[in-house]
Amino acid sequence: MNDSGESSMARLSATEREAALRELPGWRELEGREAIGRSFQFKDFSEAFGFMTRVALAAEKADHHPEWRNVYRTVEVVLTTHDAGGLTHRDVLLAKAMDTIAERCGAA
Ligand code: H2B
Q1: Where are the alpha helices (DSSP H) in 1-108?
Q2: How many CB atoms lie within 10 A of CB 12?
Q3: Ligand 1 atom nearest residue 84's Cα
Q4: pTM confidence score
Q5: Could you give the angle at the alpha carbon of 23 between the alpha carbons of 18 and 24, nearest 5°?
Q6: Exposed end of the chain (fewer CB within 10 Å): N or C?
Q7: Residue 105 and residue 58 in contact, taking contact as beta carbons nearer than 8 Å
């Protein structure tokens, strides 16, 4: 793994988590768990599932996978790095990718 790959697997410090969240409006820190979460709303199930399909391909490519739950047009996401026991740069990257994909999929 290269340098950025290695650093992407290091747990973020509290200061780094704060800085990362400032760049991720809409995301929040979960209580009692070192993880971030966000809820996405789409027009209907088809758009929500389209979003999940695109994210799934990106997640598989990055070998970093979301915890998520879909109810009709809502997708609730939790990101953390189990391998590191907390939040890492990988979660921040996936959160940003999800925001970009959601915007393209017409998220509210
Ligand atoms: N996804 C997430 N969100 N956290 C991980 O720690 C993680 C993952 N680990 N996807 C990966 C896969 C790991 O289990 C494999 C073996 O690389």
Answers
A1: 3-8, 14-22, 45-62, 89-104
A2: 20
A3: 6
A4: 0.93
A5: 95
A6: N
A7: no
On the question of pLDDT at 50 being above 50, the answer is yes
**Residue that the structure tokens 């709303």 belong to:** 41
Angle of helix 89-104 versus helix 45-62 axis, rounded to 10 = 150
**CATH number of the CATH domain containing 90:** 3.30.1360.20
Q: List the residue whose alpha carbon is closest to atom 7 of ligand 1.
A: 64
* Domains: count for the chain: 1
Rg (the chain; Cα; Å) = 14
Domain that holds residue 68: 6-104
| Cβ burial 63-97 (10 Å sphere, 16+ → b, else e) | ebebebebeebebebebbbeebebbbbbbbebbeb
* Residues recorded for the chain: 108
With a Cβ cut-off of 6 Å, ligand 1 is lined by: 63-65, 81-83
